[in-house]
Design brief:
This protein is mainly alpha-helical. Helix content is about 75%, strand content about 0%. It has 2 domains: about 55 residues, Homeodomain-like (Arc Repressor Mutant, subunit A); about 150 residues, Tetracycline Repressor, domain 2 (Orthogonal Bundle). Helix 5 packs parallel to helix 8, helix 6 runs antiparallel to helix 10 and helix 8 crosses helix 9. The longest helix has 30 residues. The chain is globular, with a radius of gyration of 20 Å.
């Protein structure tokens, strides 16, 4: 493990260590209960180092959110490239996209908790972060492209994206509350696999059913 002196001799490594520590602490404790001193201690650097790199706790918080949202954008772009290169049927593409998003969320639980805390406080910090809008719009555009939807079907794609997010996030956020109350361990591999398959099936079958019902009026799109 690198010493404090070693970390601080490598600015890029130090910056990432501070962001990693801040992300975890802010997700676990929230903004008000996290200090720059706490972050420095958790990152293994001197107390003044986070302030030196980021200036203030607010700026550090925004950098943490920006980095998280950039991960989302990267995942969306990667998934879109794979989907378009696969030339699979739309239902297969959609199943893959939903499964990949579910996996991403469960591999980044701190990101989910951060956004939940931000939502409860009104989402004001996200107003200052352009990637917030870009990540959502990129995800929406990816769904339209991957499923070969008509421009008029963007409202359907938007609702699909909201459903994917809600279904994938719920057990991450409410594992210790609602799901535990049902007598289920939300962290068990068996539950996660069952939940993943359920979410994929629900979204895919729901969208396919919608388009099947409208096939006579809207022959383009999913077939």
């Amino acid at each position: 493990m690198a010493s404090t002196a070693d970390r601080e001799r490598n600015p890029a490594r130090t910056r990432e260590a501070i962001l990693d520590a801040a992300e975890q602490l802010l997700a676990d404790r929230g903004y008000e209960q996290t200090s720059l001193n706490d972050v420095g201690r958790a990152a293994g650097v001197s107390r003044g180092t986070p302030g030196y790199f980021f200036g203030s706790k607010e700026r550090l918080y925004r950098e943490v959110l920006s980095r998280c949202l950039e991960r989302v954008r990267a995942a969306v772009r990667s998934g879109k490239e794979r989907a378009l290169a696969s030339q699979e049927a739309p239902d297969i593409v959609l199943a893959g996209a939903v499964g990949e998003y579910f996996d991403f969320i469960h591999q980044n639980p701190a990101f989910v908790r951060l956004l939940e805390r931000e939502a409860l406080s009104g989402g004001h910090q996200l107003e200052h972060i352009p990637p917030h809008l870009n990540a959502a719009q990129e995800a929406l555009g990816a769904i339209v492209s991957e499923l070969s939807l008509d421009p008029g079907d963007e409202a359907v794609a938007r609702q699909l994206l909201i459903s994917m997010i809600a279904l994938s996030w719920f057990d991450v956020v409410h594992g210790p509350t609602v799901i535990r109350g049902l007598g289920v361990d939300s962290t068990s591999p068996a539950f996660l696999e069952e939940r993943r398959q359920h979410v994929v099936n629900l979204v895919v079958q729901g969208l396919l059913g919608r388009f099947a019902a409208q096939a006579s009026d809207h022959p383009s799109g999913l077939t």
